[in-house]
Amino acid sequence: MPQLPTVPNTDPSKCVLDSFRIAIAKRLSEALPLTVEQAFSGVDYGKKGEDFTVAIPRFRLPASPSEIAAKVAEKFQPDEWIESIVHDNAFLHFRVNTTNMIREVLHQVHHLSHETKSGEPEYGTNTSGAGQKVIIEYSSPNIAKAFHVGHLRSTIIGAFLANLYKACGWEVISMNYLGDWGSQIGKIAYGFEKYGSQEELEKDTIKHLFDIYVQAHKDTQSDPEIKAEAARWFKRLEDGDEEILSKWKEWREKSVKTYESEYERLNVKFDVYTGESAVSQEGMENVLEKLESMGLLVESKGATLVDLEKWKLAKAIARKQDGTSIYLIRDIAAAIERYEKYKFDKMIYVVASQQDHHLAQCFKVLELMGLPWAKSLVHVNYGLVLGMSTRKGTVVFLDQIIREAGNVMHEQMQKNEEKYQNVEDPETTSLEIGITGVKIQDMAAKRINNYTFNWDRMLSFEGDTGPYLQYAHVRLASIGRKNPHLLPLPAPSEIDTSHLAQWEAARNIAFLLGTYPDVVKTALKTHEPSGVVTYAFRLAHAISSAWEVVIVKGEEDVEKARAKMFLYECAREVLAAAMKLLSIRPLERM
Predict the structure, then answer these.
(1) What is one Gene Ontology biological process annotated in the Swiss-Prot or TrEMBL record (predicted)?
(2) Which of 14, 148, 187, 521 is catalytic?
(3) Which of the residues 19, 144, 356, 413 could staple to 209 if both were Cys, CB 3.0 to 4.6 A apart?
(4) Which domain holds residue 485?
């Protein structure tokens, strides 16, 4: 292909469509008083079947945009990069050279999926975050309290962000900040003494601690003396009493172990399990002293408040009447201790939108304390899940959600007896499809939206659902099994991809594959998994439209059959990459 100028922040070796955009920008810069770089900023993906569209008004050139566009269109000659141009009022639509685009995209997908130095598939990744470190805090359930659906959303979105930042070259620390301290621990200590059973604890830690907590909470509500006793238990823990400390450590360790196996089923992994207990008393005292010296603290009814009225963030409680610190101070101290330990370049909190105000206060106080890194704190928020319950009633534990998803899917699969017989491990497969259903329903819309969870929708193989996405991948994986005579495919340089240019459906797939690296970059800017979900569905639909026209089985011309097979193999690589980015394990059979 002919040489092209280089443009900053592009990398044709990772995203070959950058080359085609640069070729368009070069055309514009030759016809108009623009540099290649200025022109490149105006080359956008087109809508409704156009490859790339340029809106002339954005360049603010003297003369009517329509006349300028006409001038560019008149001079147009097709070349190896661009096939045609359409003048549409103030817009220019460019169609790239089909044969060359298909070849270049498929070669790049293959090369970056199978021939990388790391030995890992790298198509869609970039190095924009190289040398930078990000902490992502997500999931963060409370020990002995219900793992509610809000925690599930945080887990799903956080796992996506961890994968996304890794794909963009960042060093990622996935952190789980457990609610493992505070008055609830006093209640559990009191409750365990009264209702606890070591045997039950071993059998199902999280459920047993939860049951104890519920019972103890009831007791404290009805009897002030028991409430005081629970508070005394917690005081003993704070004072480092060995007896209660060793019990607390055991509860915490067993809880973490249980969570780890549940996270494993969800394909989620944490680098660090920390918690409220890890924040030092000294750290919190230092924060209070600093705020006092800055004149930010005010007394009110025996409590100490941080006055943030000036920044329209109201007053926040720093210390209660009984002298105990409140969440705000603990979270501020935790952030400071994390920075001292990890020297991060960015820290992201994946926390529900109900905490918008709390985190805004937290970030503002850190900024007022003169900490330059406070500007690199980010709150990625999300809306509520409504109506999540199992068929037996309300959801309390994470494993109930996971089990229900698997069971419901398993029943669905058994309805097709013939296919069911061919599945190697129906239990595991139904669990994976079920989890995919839960995740896709969660990530399909913008995260700030509340959504109503619907088991029926999750089970559907029609429409934009998790099972449909797995089905699309499985179908791609089956082409090789159904056409073993074509495998292994020869090297890409020996496959004549020009045969594919005759099918618009093949062209659509190839172009979509070429856009994937940009989908990843956009997701990094917006922190929205929905863009990747939408992309995965667009790709699955494009593949589905091609089945009836770009047919491998029965194609007698072996050259053509190989080219089609190569297209579908590349599509499978990219669909799998998008699914893995969303923390979904792509299935080979179902």
Answers:
(1) arginyl-tRNA aminoacylation
(2) 148
(3) 144
(4) 398-582
